Each structure stands twice: as C-alpha cells, then as structure tokens.
Amino acid sequence: MTPPLASDLAARARAAAHPHADACACGAVVTLADRADATVVRHAGTVAKAHAPDTDPAELTARLTTAARTPGVLLAPLAPTPVALHGRPVTFWPYGSPVDPDAPDAAPWEAAAALLARLHRTPPPVPLPPMRGPVKAARAIAGLRAAARNSASHAVLRAWATLPAWARGESPLPDTGTLCHGDLHLGQLVRHPAPEGPWLLIDVDDLGVGPAAWDLARPAAWYACGLLPPDEWTRFLTAYRASGGPAVPPGTDPWPALDVPARALTVQTAARAVTKAVEAERPLDDVEQSLVDACARMASVPAQLSRNLAK
Q1: DSSP assignment of 73-141
Q2: Global pTM?
Q3: Residue 32, number of CB atoms within 10 A of its CB
C-alpha cells in the first residue's frame, strides 16, 4: 500500500481500538493483506479495511447493515457506515482467528457449509445489489487477456466462452432473492471472539443476492479438478444439505445446479494463475497446470462439468 494510506490506515486502526486513550502499549499495527482491491491492517483487537477505490459507498453500507443484522452467520462490523480515507472507503471490524493453513486436516468444512446454509435461508434484511461473483470472474478474464497470449490462456478463454452470459457478468443473475456471500473459501472464516469462539463468515465486498450454488462453486471446482479430496468434498456437501441449504437439496444430483458456477470458478482461478505466472516470468506449477488442463477439457465438453474432469 502507498505510504500515506499505510500510515493513515494504521492511525485509524489505533484510534478505533482505543477510542478513549491517547496512547497504547499494544505494539505495531500488523498488515494482514495489501492488494489493489483491499488493504487490511490489525491493531490489538481491531481490524481496519480499506476497500477498492471503485467501491460504491451506498452498496457497501447495505452490506455492512446486512452483516450487522445476520448474527451468528456474518461477523458484525464495529461501525455501521464506512469512512473515507484517500478516496477509499474504510470499515472497522473485530479481530477473529482465521483458519490455520498449516492444519488442513482441521479445515472447518462442516462449519463453512452450515454457515452458508443459514445465510442462504436468511431473507435479505435490506435491499442488496447482485452478488459480485460473476463480475470478479470477468475481471480475472480481463486481466488474463491483458497479460498473456499463450496456449494456457487460449485454453482458459475457450472454456470461458462456453459459459452462459450471466456467469460471465454479461446479463442479470437467474436468482435475485437469495442472500449469497459471493466469494466463499476457507479464508473467509474466522473464530470470534478469538481464539476459540464460533466460526463466522467475513468479507462482505461481494455479498448480495444471487444463485446460492455460486457459494458452493469453489470447493466443487476444486473437487472436480482433483485439488480437494473426495472425503472433504463429501463432508462439505453433506453438512450443507443437513443444515437445510437450498442450493442442492438432499436426494438430488448436485451437479446440474453446481455445473455452471463450478466451471466459472475453475476458469476464474485458472485465469488468475496464468496471469500471475506470466507476470512473474515463470512456468505454471502443477496445481496451476491442473486448472488449465481442466479448462481445456471443459471446452471440449461444455455441457457438464464432470466429476472425472481431472482423470
């Protein structure tokens, strides 16, 4: 992040953590993320997030309100509205303990699934814009087109062309009534209060209304590409169904509902992987190549994302 944003965001985090004190002994502000679309810092038990410059403040406020009114599912913000800082909206949150990336066997798949099911069954408490999943996928494709013209990018773009317009962010979503997270992965869960509180969903940037199946698409895509073990996928899907999740009711084949969203997430992830590899001037690693290979197979079998694509 730029120096002015860095120092001022750190100062805002300190002030939010200690609103009635002139100084503290908590130590330095820790940077949790620093990307073009989000800069996140932590001071003591407070997290400050600078959202993307093109974020709509009114839409973000609606998303904050939704988080505040969905207790036990979404982490509630510390303030109901964003504040402006260097042309970017900033929000404040309590700190929660994230998923441990070094303990894959302890991944909270059941908790993630149960939270999603509860979210999908919750009527939106305020009017919300469409969830931003397809828009983010389209941005990944735009980045790929700008960065690369090679065999890998061609495979990804051919797979992209097989998707319906709504999954490419080019037409309205087929569902405008279901509350969706929009960008579900294990990095979007924290325990609050830290370190042993219940799991909650975080990151409301893509929250909105849309097809619930999109929130299951990333683990479905990983499973289809051979990147998520079958037992973990089964744990996740079973827990979602047991919790009353509406996207894939019990006793039905889940893939007709998951097909398009899972293909879209495969293409999005592959596009980002190829773009990063090109920018770093390095070859694709094994995981990245498996995503590109899945895209190549999808282009030849566009009607259905088979569970055997990786084989």
Answers
A1: TBPPPSSSS-EEETTEEEEEEE--EEP-TT-GGG--HHHHHHHHHHHHHSPPSS--PBPSHHHHHHHHH
A2: 0.93
A3: 15
Q: Token pair for residue 7?
A: 């120092």
Amino acid letter, 264:
A
Burial category of 69 from C-beta neighbours within 10 Å (exposed 0-12, middle 13-18, buried 19 and up): middle
Nearest to 261 by CA among 181, 196, 188: 181
Residue with tokens 């969905």: 70
Q: What angle (nearest 5°) sits at the alpha carbon of residue 206, between those of residues 201 and 209?
A: 95
d(CA 11, CA 247): 43
Walking along the chain (311 residues) 10 residues at a time, the average pLDDT comes out as 77 87 77 90 94 96 98 97 95 96 90 98 97 97 94 96 97 96 96 96 98 97 94 96 95 94 97 96 96 92 51 38
